[in-house]
Amino acid sequence: MARLVVVSHFAAVRAGLRTLLADQPGLSLVGETPWVVNLGALLIDSCADIVLWDYAESELASMIEICERAEVRPVVLGPDRDAIVELVDSHVTAWAALPRDAEPEEIAGAVAAVTAGLVAMNPATLDLIADPSRATERAGEPLTPREQEILQLMAEGMPNKQIAIRLGISQHTVKFHAASLFAKLDAASRTEAVTSGIRRGLVLL
After folding, report:
1. Contact 44, 69 (CB under 8 A)
2. Which of 28, 88, 157, 172 has the fewest CB atoms within 10 Å around its CB?
3. How many whole angstroms separate alpha carbon 88 and alpha carbon 125?
4. Is 86 exposed, middle or buried (0-12, 13-18, 19+ CB in 10 A)?
5. Helices in the chain by DSSP H: which ranges?
6. pTM to 2 decimals?
7. Distance separating alpha carbons of residues 63 and 26, to the nearest angstrom
8. Beta sheet of 73-77, edge-to-edge order
9. Which among 87, 66, 185 is positioned nearest to 136, based on CA atoms?
């Protein structure tokens, strides 16, 4: 029996997940909390194996740290690519990434997979992060707001560590965004990216 703790800021989401999981064999909901900051003590008290987490970007680093320390495996609902890259680069031994509208059977399957020490994720998302050949197809795409922020800070001379601190994200996430904006600007280095950004009016001087 896999013991789950549910984490979501929203009471309605937690209630919905309780309903979805109520009749799933092999799963036992042993606790819930609206905030990752409260999670550590809850995991100890409930002896949980799995964290079923409604993804929130601001809590990503804390969630990964807690899971690594407590050796608890996360099943993440609605993660973006940044979150998946963070999970790939973390020391979490097994995890799953599912869309927020995943069916109960899909959640149960993901829980079974991570319980067995596997990684489970949406194939479409896997394609996006695992195929490096796609990078060459992205030149000319508009930058996301986050990529524009990072490009601006690069232009101000900030290294990745300082950018991560300024934006409240990890260095791995900064590197991921940097690789993406390099591809979109057809740049091979920070200097080329900043120069291209200036030419395109994306950098404020």
Report:
1. no
2. 157
3. 12
4. buried
5. 11-21, 39-46, 60-70, 81-89, 104-115, 123-130, 145-155, 160-167, 171-185, 190-199
6. 0.64
7. 24
8. 27-33, 2-7, 50-54, 73-77, 96-98, 120-121
9. 185
DSSP 26: T
Nearest Cα neighbor of 55 from 94, 10, 105, 18 is 10
Please give the DSSP secondary-structure letter assigned to residue 131.
-
pLDDT tens sequence for the chain (205 residues) = 889 999 999 999 999 999 888 888 888 999 999 989 889 899 989 999 999 999 998 899 899 999 988 889 999 999 887 788 788 778 888 999 998 888 888 888 898 899 888 888 876 666 555 544 444 455 667 888 889 999 999 999 999 889 989 998 887 788 888 888 888 888 888 888 999 888 888 888 7
Q: Residue written as tokens 């030419």?
A: 199
Domains of the chain listed by start with CATH number:
2-129 (3.40.50.2300), 134-199 (1.10.10.10)
Q: Are 95 and 75 in contact (CB under 8 A)?
A: yes
